Amino acid sequence: MEDLTNEALEAPRDFKNFSALSCIDLSSPDILNSVSLLKQACLDSGFFYVINHGISQEFMDEVFYQSKSFFDLPVSEKMKVLRNKTHRGYTYPFSQRLDPVNQIQGDYNEGYNIGIEVPENDPDIEKLLYEPNVWPPSDILPGWRETMEKYHREALEVAKAISRIIALALNLKVDFFDRQEMLGKPIAILRLLHYEGSVFDPMKGIYGAGAHSDFGLITLLATDDIYGLQICKDKDAKPQKWEFVAPLKGAFIVNIGDMLERWSNCIFRSTLHRVLGNGQERYSIAYFVQPSHDCLVECLPTCQSQENPPKFPPIKCETYMLQRYKDTHVVLESYEK
After folding, report:
1. Pfam families per the record (predicted)?
2. What CA–CA distance (Å, rounded) separates 12 from 321?
């Protein structure tokens, strides 16, 4: 198990230990520059900032306030909306273990998952990844559901805007990911996260979130001003080099996921990342974007050749996602006990 020294924990005070990430302005008319910046970021680290994305700071502050309001509830209230078999609802600390090699108990954070809501008459309503959300009672948290549903809608529009730049960077048509089987009916999960401030103990294998790469297409991460996120650009290096990602107010930290790595035949990188604690409470809001459950994830024609054949077999999105959930989550029956 890795031993993080006191010097490593003090790294954020030395800016040489911060990762330098590209910053993409979604309001910029220079689309070629945005494509160039994104492509280089995805070749280098798989992480980049996105600014001027269209979601106001005032609304972002409201979402963080509402998130904190939920996590401030008594445990007995939070347990009433415990996550269900579709992973919607409240997740208690240690319910997920993203890095079983270095973690003993699991991720020391609590979360709340909110997915896409489809109409009751939609034929996909019974699909496992589209079932209804779990919501806290409105008399306890008035306006909470409405705030989260609005954020879900607005974050999806940001994700779609980023996906169009990704498409161009991969020499695809700009609307490649807009199609119905892609992001027309996505599996998009909003995950509120709360990390307690006094529990980080690497000697005991306790991390806010263990080292992992994300499952899907892209992830949008909004954070408070407390550092904690680290990335490892070369997962095969011995020893691995970890760099902090600085919070940037008003920006999303965006990273690509394993599905995009598969699509791009490993041209674009899905990078290892983790969360460490530094003695302070930390809140973040992750938005995980995957295509439709029936989407077949297979090597893009622009990313393969006779010299570079597909590295992965085709797989349906739903199959891939459910397997990754199974690999990283505590069995629900045990969790409820």
Report:
1. 2OG-FeII_Oxy, DIOX_N
2. 34
- Tally of domains within the chain: 1
In a domain? residue 195:
yes
CB 21 within 8 A of CB 254: no
The predicted-structure confidence for 231-240, as pLDDT tens digits, reads as follows 998 877 777 7
Cα(68)–Cα(151) distance, integer angstroms: 15
Q: What is the pLDDT of residues 207-259, one digit of tens each?
A: 888 888 998 999 999 999 998 899 998 877 777 788 999 999 999 999 999 99
* b/e sequence 187-207, b meaning 16+ C-beta within 10 Å: bbbbbbbbbbeeebebeebbb
By three-state DSSP, how is residue 193 classified? strand
pTM of the model: 0.89
| CATH code: domain of residue 74 | 2.60.120.330
DSSP state of 132: P
> DSSP letter string over 18-83?
B----EEETT-S-HHHHHHHHHHHHHHTSEEEEE--S--HHHHHHHHHHHHHHHTS-HHHHGGGB-
